[in-house]
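Sample entry (254 residues):
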Amino acid sequence: MNELSNASPSLRLFDCNTRVGYMKEPPPAPILTAPELLAEMDRCGVDKALVHSTNVELMSAIDANIAVSELCTGQERLQPVWSILPPQTGEMVPDRLLDDMKRQGVRILRAYPAENHYLLNSLTLGPLLDKLCDHQIPLFVPGQWADLTQLLQDFPQLIVIAADYGCWGQDRLYRPLIERYEHFHIETSALELDGGIPRLVADYGSERVLFGSGCQSRSMGGASLLLRNLDIDPVSKALIAHGNLERLLLGTRL
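Predicted structure, serialized as tokens:
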């Protein structure tokens, strides 16, 4: 079979994992503004993107949320992702957070427990996580697999998207979660092993795999090229490229 026989040059891509802002270890060409991100998306054939703020590493998560919302304002192709914080310090009150999300058009959240110095568990974030379950709001969680497993054990109805994990041999860590928890999802930015995504789709289906590039930490062009040329059926490829993420965003209740 010709190695390009499965190429999908017209595939519509909705990138769930892009970052804008300064980084502790900046790439050669940092992306700091909406026009810069849109230019990279155009270069790599990406239609829409969820935007996370790298500034969560360098400033208050609240300020980072404000900054990423301002960056996405008026940009139909960009949607902001906010970071969560524990309620005990008064920085983020669950009821007020949901109202703010509705007002600002935010439909998805992210946890940065290491960067923001908290434990992602029921003791620290129980009331907020309960509300995310009730309102079907997805949560990006870094791929610290032991912590993520405990989180899903405590909140099996939580819609979790594992992100930013290592690229080497993660299957033994995330496959048990796919088998046990129906609301567990995984984004593709680090699923780089040859044949890894086709085997994952063959074993578990495509409905819980989301296209993510990891830009700026990883190459958006490489992620786009990989997905377009995967040896999987067109329906599965479209679900990964945009359909699964669109379904999750439409399912949120705010």
